[in-house]
Amino acid sequence: RMLCNLWPTIRKEREEWKTRLKSPAPNLKSRDKDIDWAVAIGNFCGIGCQPPKRVVRIFVSSTFTDTALERNFVLDDVMPYLKECALFRGLEVVISEMRFSIRESSIDKNLTSKICMDELKHCQEDSAGVCYILLACDKYGFRPSPTRIPKHEFESLLANMEGKDQLLTRTIYELDENQMGKPEYTMLNQRNLEGKIATAANFSVWDILREVQLALRRAAFKLWPDGAEELRNPRSKHRIKFYFISVTEEEVSRALFWPEREKIEGRVHVFFRTMQGLSRMPPDTPKLNDFVDVETAADGSVVLDTDATSMLSQLRDRMIPEVLDDLDCTTRYAPLTWADGGIDPWNDEHASYLRLFLDDFCRIVLNSMDAAEEKLAVMPDKILNECETHLLFARERGERYMETNSSRDALLRIQDYLDGPGGKLFVVFGPSGAGKTYTMAKAAYDEGLSRRGSVVARFLGTSHNSSNVFELLCSLYGQLRLISLGESTFSSLPGVGQDGHSLPQCPESFEDLCKAFKIALAKDCWRWGRLTIFLDSLDQLDDSNGGPSLDWLPADGLSDEIHVVVSTLPDILCHDTGPIRCLSMLQMRIAPQSNMESLTEIYPQSFVRVNPLDDAGELLKHMLKFYGRTATEAQMDAVMNAVNKADENKTPLIVAILANMVAEWHSNDTVLEIPTSVRAVHLSFFRRLIEKHGDPLVQAALSYITLAKQGVSESELHELLSLDDMVLASVYEW
User: Fold this and answer.
1) At 94, phi and psi to the nearest 5?
2) Cα–Cα distance measured from residue 314 to residue 724, given in angstroms and rounded to the nearest whole number
3) Cα gap 662→324, rounded to integer Å
4) 572 forms bridges with which residues in the sheet?
5) What does R_g of the chain's alpha carbons equal in angstroms?
6) 79-88 helix and 348-375 helix, angle to the nearest 10 degrees
7) In b/e form, how buried is each residue of 600-610, taking b as 16+ CB within 10 angstroms?
8) By C-alpha distance, which of 263, 278, 283, 288 is closest to 66?
9) What does pTM read for this prediction?
């Protein structure tokens, strides 16, 4: 109804915006031939980083109460239009709206600021265009004390406090020694804090927090006598800042002040909107505290927070312009007059401002989307894109690989096979979660780094084109053909392939494709140097074209220059999909005279089993390193007792999920019941997701992802979830 007062129609029906809904097709840039050749032959040194994502992800920063109307109108008027524009450009556009989805449990654990900073970093890393938009108005915002303080710093601050201040500060912080190499004091969560001070008469949690905040600030000035100068230096990252600045200024610092210039140019924008005479209005004016910073005086009256007002004035009027002045990324509006309730869309002056702001916001993001589309407009190549996806998958896991006794033995056996003559298959098998994929990734990564030949890697089921055998063979054969073309002719793909010096074009029918794939790998055909193929998780193929039967995979007659390493589960009966018998199929073709129990003993040159863990403790410690965490001896013992009870299910997967749980523990946390089975571990993981995000959101999101057979984009998932009233009620907790 309020939007109707601004415009009679939705944005895409307004004349100015109709013409921009679709953009002219951009000129496609040529691909980088050197990178493409590196991808084709599996050269990990030449493939670079992850390809840019086709998403414009924007963190909208401001204090909330004074910009609620602008934020709501952006969601109601601008975002539907931008999402439709994004579809025509092959992009996604996502607004990170921090008013939603921060649940009470996260607030209780003092995670609000961390969630905001993590999301800001996510936008900076992911966005192909603008990543940060600030609404700089008349409110400085919440200024919490740090929830984590390095041990040496905390003790230095205590040394600069008086006795009462020391006692209060020690009341709300406890030492956590689980931060690897950097012990720190962490603020108690609010529930524990309420219990700890429940006996303190006439004091609330917020009274205590306020007293400690002031004590920390006084001590900070004593500890760092020159800190006042650093405090208002926008480029400074001095620790004193974290005792004085607001959450919003920390966002501003991380987005505008601290990154290198090239990281913010064309990627940020600031809107300045102020209102006249707010400081002269009575502090108890209705709704005024939504638009300015106020505090409670000693006599209980509400007064203007002059310290926050000063901090805001320096930030908004000096520091931001000082950093951004020459970047053409700011928009200033004429100061507005106060209306009842602050911003009033029925007020002509305010309505005019809102129309300008929403049009400017839309134009800035749309221009950024057009620039992103142009930047990402590279000649598509389905085969090379698929190759690159799996090489990056192998590199990421190869670099994170942590061996167990069993995976180390398997890796050595794979290496022995690769160092010997080719011409035959090598099979890695073991239970789910035993570490087969990481072992295969490490083997592929090491082989690629050796540069002794071409490497082809596919991790089946991790992409749409590796989940069914027809698409898999199309991409495999396509990559083999690229290798056969050779580096010198790589830039002239269309005219090559019919002269007898390279493989012919990919057949269209599945039967012809199977024949062509087998012929390409045969002794009398392959003549393009050493070739190593890794096919992980054969059991992940769907039933189309008889993929799980493995008739398409040649087991003999291979060229001596070809090594093929495959992995699969042991034979199992799956209640959802029926029996998985990939290992039996391979055994009948490679070792028909053997039985399953003696495969690895009789045919060690062809089979190796990855077994459940026998050294879970070291693996757990290694996985905790990825979180920068460790655990106390008592906590480690409790986890190891749980892992040891898992028996045959004692796999790296269980340890990985438990590590995710243990990484959240503080050294003084009491260890509660730890799950000991695969099912219990997974349920525990889902319960933690539900605690963080709410039951309706988690159930709905996972259901839609499961049901979307062809995958679902983030924007599509947003749209689906927004149709569910229970999800919305949960997300809009506040």
Assistant:
1) -130, 130
2) 44
3) 42
4) 580
5) 30
6) 20
7) beebeebbbbb
8) 288
9) 0.88
